[in-house]
Amino acid sequence: MLGHHDRYTDTALDVPSKPRMRGAVPILRIHDEEAAREFYVDHLGCSIEWEHRFAPGTPLYARLRRDELVIDLSGHEGDGTRDPSCGSRSATSTDSMRNCREAPTRGHHRKSTSKRPAGRR
After folding, report:
1. How many C-beta neighbours within 10 Å does residue 89 have?
2. Phi, psi at residue 72, to the nearest 5°?
3. What is the pLDDT of residue 64?
4. Torsion sign over Cα 52, 33, 107, 96
5. Closest among 42, 30, 16, 23 to 92, alpha carbons compared
6. Are 113 and 32 contacting, i.e. CB atoms less than 8 angstroms apart?
7. Which of 6, 52, 107, 121 would be a feasible disulfide site paired with 42, CB 3.0-4.6 Å?
């Protein structure tokens, strides 16, 4: 009991003064699941941690990871932004850009076959 008279005082003293913050997970909007898998999994070497759909045939929501990088991909219309002038952006760092460029060996990224106009992606 840490020298206190009740368990509530002990619990209150064990709570840190500030909550611990962790890294942000960007949500990137996708329009072509096959192209997204080819790029993130085959080309960049990310692994899929989990996938979710509300029902068969509905848009995909997935979490991917590679080393310390974690990203969510979403096929849902409301995720990300629709305005190309303020589109979603994300940045990550790597210890070797050369190795990052050379590492993808399982496939080559191809352009999306989505029929949507470029400004509406």
Report:
1. 8
2. -110, 140
3. 96
4. negative
5. 23
6. yes
7. 107
